[in-house]
């Protein structure tokens, strides 16, 4: 094997500079992990389209991308026609990511039908609709990335539905990796990440929670949205990863 065998340019375009000029669609791009992925991808040279529920949040993120923002789409991800229309508007894309998740951590018997339906809409029907759009509007060398979560592996009281949806999403991704090939389909499974998910807690309560989790983790800290963004970029750039779940949880599964 020669040295050139390891050159990114000879391995399907993977590696440094692989995102320059590429087109990325981020569902859930108005805040948190989605916004962080959009910013890092734009910094790496990608052109980014954003989708989510809040027009104001999407436009705020787009303003930080300078000339790398393609468009913003304020849509409901459970609406198949709206999702397909948004992806088709600037497609085809090289990479599509969905980080959206309207999650409620409560015991099953305490969850309202509306809360369960909102979780299904964002964590199941959203990815399904994104995948349907990707089948037509994702290039053959492209990738689709979902976001699941640690609750699927480390259940706790109040996480039964969230955990079930996370594992269902991972199973969906593995099946899609076969159905959509050669397009790649992967999943990022975050642990406890400092995102707006915890905004319902008071500041002191949230800090105490984060400190308690950090003390239990092998990594010694909770995660940041930048940690998730780097994992997403790695999955985009590595053309030999598909049907994979990347755990970015600070060791949460083994703690």
Can you describe this structure?
With 255 residues, this protein is α/β, with parallel strands linked by helices. It has 7 helices and 7 strands; from the N terminus they run E-H-E-H-E-H-E-H-E-H-E-H-H-E. Strands 3-2-1-4-5-6-7 form a 7-stranded parallel β-sheet, with helices on both faces. The protein is globular, with a radius of gyration of 18 Å. The N and C termini lie far apart (40 Å).
| Largest sheet properties | 7 strands, parallel
Number of helices: 7
Strand order of the largest sheet: 3-2-1-4-5-6-7
Unreliable runs: 1-13
Number of strands: 7
**What is the strand content?**
15-25%
Helix content: 40-55%
Principal-axes shape call: globular
SSE series: EHEHEHEHEHEHHE
- Give the helix/strand class: alpha/beta
Distance between the termini: 40 Å
Mean pLDDT: 93
Over all CA atoms, what is the radius of gyration? 18 Å
Briefly, what is this?
The protein has 255 residues and is of the alpha/beta class. 41% of the residues lie in helices and 17% in strands. Strands 3-2-1-4-5-6-7 form a seven-stranded parallel sheet, with helices on both faces.
């Amino acid at each position: 094997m020669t040295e050139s065998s390891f050159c990114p340019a000879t391995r399907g375009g993977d590696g440094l500079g692989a995102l320059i000029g590429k087109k990325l669609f981020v569902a859930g791009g108005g805040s948190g992990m989605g916004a962080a992925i959009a910013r890092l991808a734009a910094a790496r040279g990608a052109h980014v389209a954003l989708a989510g529920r809040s027009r104001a949040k999407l436009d705020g993120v787009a303003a930080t991308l300078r000339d790398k923002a393609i468009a913003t789409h304020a849509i409901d991800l459970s609406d198949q026609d709206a999702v397909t229309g948004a992806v088709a508007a600037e497609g085809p894309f090289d990479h599509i990511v969905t980080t959206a998740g309207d999650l409620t951590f409560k015991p099953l018997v305490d969850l309202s039908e509306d809360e369960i339906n909102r979780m299904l809409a964002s964590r199941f029907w959203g990815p399904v609709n994104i995948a349907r759009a990707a089948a037509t509007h994702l290039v053959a060398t492209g990738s689709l990335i979902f976001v699941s979560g640690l609750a699927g592996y480390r259940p706790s009281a109040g996480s039964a539905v969230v955990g079930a949806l996370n594992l269902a999403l991972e199973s969906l991704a593995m099946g899609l990796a076969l159905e959509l090939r050669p397009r790649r389909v992967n999943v990022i499974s975050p642990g406890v990440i400092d995102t707006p998910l915890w905004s319902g807690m008071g500041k002191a309560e949230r800090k105490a929670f984060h400190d308690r989790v950090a003390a239990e983790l092998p990594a010694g800290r909770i995660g940041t949205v930048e940690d998730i963004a780097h994992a997403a970029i790695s999955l985009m750039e590595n053309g030999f990863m598909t049907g994979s779940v990347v755990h970015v949880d600070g060791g949460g599964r083994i703690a």
